[in-house]
From TrEMBL:
<feature type="transmembrane region" description="Helical">
    <location>
        <begin position="7"/>
        <end position="29"/>
    </location>
</feature>
<protein>
    <recommendedName>
        <fullName>Tetraspanin</fullName>
    </recommendedName>
</protein>
<dbReference type="InterPro" id="IPR000301">
    <property type="entry name" value="Tetraspanin_animals"/>
</dbReference>
<feature type="transmembrane region" description="Helical">
    <location>
        <begin position="80"/>
        <end position="104"/>
    </location>
</feature>
<dbReference type="GO" id="GO:1900746">
    <property type="term" value="P:regulation of vascular endothelial growth factor signaling pathway"/>
</dbReference>
<dbReference type="Pfam" id="PF00335">
    <property type="entry name" value="Tetraspanin"/>
</dbReference>
<feature type="transmembrane region" description="Helical">
    <location>
        <begin position="202"/>
        <end position="225"/>
    </location>
</feature>
<dbReference type="InterPro" id="IPR008952">
    <property type="entry name" value="Tetraspanin_EC2_sf"/>
</dbReference>
<keyword id="KW-0472">Membrane</keyword>
<dbReference type="InterPro" id="IPR018499">
    <property type="entry name" value="Tetraspanin/Peripherin"/>
</dbReference>
<comment type="similarity">
    <text>Belongs to the tetraspanin (TM4SF) family.</text>
</comment>
<feature type="disulfide bond">
    <location>
        <begin position="143"/>
        <end position="159"/>
    </location>
</feature>
<keyword id="KW-1015">Disulfide bond</keyword>
<keyword id="KW-0812">Transmembrane</keyword>
<keyword id="KW-1133">Transmembrane helix</keyword>
<feature type="transmembrane region" description="Helical">
    <location>
        <begin position="54"/>
        <end position="73"/>
    </location>
</feature>
<dbReference type="GO" id="GO:0005886">
    <property type="term" value="C:plasma membrane"/>
</dbReference>
Length: 263
């Protein structure tokens, strides 16, 4: 086995363990997160990544991390070269995905506006669409797509709000015998937009964090490959010790000659 710097070896091994943990976290995010609260009702079509993609990304990261950890621990040149190639390609892909997600995030409010505005007014929509909208309002505790006025006064019971549990407002409802109704103050589309932007921010953060980790992995793996190819030659700056640290301490006689005499 070729002798390499032990600190570099363990640093790269620990790095890949952390990298594998990141992959596990991404898989967990894919299990827990989704872009829409609707669970199929008014499903959002403008999403960047769904859960299957997160599973794939997390699994690939774990495989690459295991490859790097095994290559670093066993000082395998082939594994480290393959790991370096994966780091280069992975960093490029993560930068592209992060940039693409950032662009999609900036256009998301306009896309939501264009997607839901044609459905107005809600009291004149198709029966199935109305039922989906009422289920959405019940689940998300909202009223209307953009405002309670989307119902044009024919406000359904799914908009009703209890002052003990939610933020309510008093509105007039011409479709009811009651002169006033207490409905949810928030509309549904702003809530969907807020949660979608937050999830997009998570994706952007994950992609750019992975890109930075990839760059770090590239540096560490390049140094180790250099040592595996040139075991007797230290790596400049990072692995070599400055010459003045290797000099022996001055002897007592030399110090005594330097100190000026008091006579």
């Amino acid at each position: 086995m070729t002798q390499v710097n032990s600190c570099l070896k363990w640093l790269l091994t620990i790095f890949n363990i952390i990298f594998a943990i990141v992959g596990v976290i991404i898989i967990m995010i894919g299990m827990e997160s989704q872009l829409s609260y609707a669970n199929g009702a008014l499903a959002l079509d403008v999403h960047t990544f769904r859960k299957p993609e997160l599973y794939i990304v997390g699994s690939i990261i774990m495989v690459i991390a295991i490859l790097g950890a095994v290559g670093a621990y066993n000082e395998s040149k082939a594994c480290m070269i393959l790991f370096l190639v994966c780091m280069i390609l992975g960093s490029i892909v993560m930068l592209l995905l992060g940039s693409l997600t950032a662009v999609i995030r900036s256009k998301l409010p306009a896309v939501l506006e264009a997607a839901y505005r044609p459905a107005l007014p809600l009291d004149r929509t198709l029966y199935d669409m109305r039922n989906q909208m009422e289920r959405l309002q019940t689940k998300m505790e909202c009223c209307g797509l953009f405002s309670f006025e989307d119902w044009e006064g024919n406000i359904p019971r799914s908009c009703l709000c209890s002052k003990l549990w939610g933020t309510c407002q008093e509105v007039h409802n011409k479709g009811s015998q009651l002169p006033k109704m207490s409905v949810h103050a928030k509309a549904c589309v702003p809530i969907i937009e807020e949660e979608s932007l937050m999830l997009a921010d998570v994706y952007v953060g994950v992609f750019f964090t992975l890109a930075v980790l990839g760059l770090l992995g590239m540096v560490l793996s390049s140094i180790m490959i250099h040592q595996l190819r040139n075991p007797s030659r230290p790596v400049a700056v990072l692995m070599s010790v400055p010459a003045y640290f290797n000099q022996p301490p001055p002897r007592y006689e030399e110090l005594q000659n330097i100190v000026p005499s008091t006579n």
